[in-house]
Amino acid sequence: MNLIHALDIEFQFNEQLQTITPVLLMDEEYTILIDCGYPNFMDHIREAASRSNVALDTITTIILTHDDMDHIGSLAALKRSYPHIEVISHEIEAPYIDGTKKSLRLVQAEASLTMLPLHELAQAEQFVRFLQTIEHVPVDRLVSDKELLPWCGGIEIIHTPGHTPGHISLYLPLCKTLIAGDAVVIENGKLDIANPQFTLDLEAAVQSVRHLLAYDIEKLYCYHGGLFEGQVRPALERLADSYESRNNEPRHNKE
């Protein structure tokens, strides 16, 4: 049985072709979906899973890397269709997923409305309304940093804050594979920070990249970019170095 199935989903957004890559992990008993796309993406997920001969009703578990619309958007629909699915997230992220706390992405978007020029305001307000429509779902199981889930030879939870406070990545020691979520993305064949202008704590995001250097990673799956083809450790080091060097550049006061 193939342990890992990358579900590359292509779609049109703002008249551009985009791709997201949820991941399926499988062993003899469990089928685990890592993140679940935008709202109304169930058909996309079903089609992508079928290419790996996996039916959605066999999914036992959904692990959410964080509370963002493109990662939790179809969670409610999946849970309604398959109520047996167990939903897992980091303990910090769970209140945003279940609606106990307002989504930090929504807070960020609402705050931007007071700073935007008039010609950008209508689109920003539309985005806020869209975020307000995301359905909340209770989280069944909370996890924390370094917790080891027993499936697929062991899945280690790595707390990788920055993009959001409770963001997690997943490490499978059996196959030396990291599922990064949005801890890193692939841009033009290189690793980068996901949407640094919208990252809630960029310094923490860079430190999370440094933290990943402690792991022996041969394969790296990014939600945006898919499988990274290259030497993972040097690429992570270059990424962290590049952001830290920018922060360390001397700033000259203008006279």
Can you tell me about this structure?
The protein is α/β, with parallel strands linked by helices and 255 residues long. It has one domain (4-247): Ribonuclease Z/Hydroxyacylglutathione hydrolase-like (Metallo-beta-lactamase, Chain A), CATH 3.60.15. The protein contains eight helices and 16 strands. It has helices spanning 42-50, 69-72, 75-81, 94-98, 104-112, 118-132, 202-212, 232-247, and strands at residues 4-6, 9-13, 16-20, 23-26, 31-34, 61-63, 86-90, 141-143, 148-149, 155-159, 168-172, 177-179, 185-187, 190-192, 219-222, 226-227. The strands form four sheets. A six-stranded mixed β-sheet has the order 1-4-5-6-7-8, with no helix packed on it. The protein has a six-stranded mixed β-sheet with strand order 9-10-11-12-15-16, with no helix packed on it. Strands 2-3 form a two-stranded antiparallel ribbon. A hairpin with a 4-residue loop joins strand 11 and strand 12 (177-179). Helix 5 (104-112) runs antiparallel to helix 6 and helix 7 (202-212) packs antiparallel against helix 8. It starts with a strand and ends in an 8-residue tail after the last helix. Mean pLDDT is 95; it is low at 251-255. One of its GO terms (molecular function) is hydrolase activity. It catalyses: 3',5'-cyclic CMP + H2O = CMP + H(+); 3',5'-cyclic UMP + H2O = UMP + H(+). It comes from Paenibacillus thalictri.
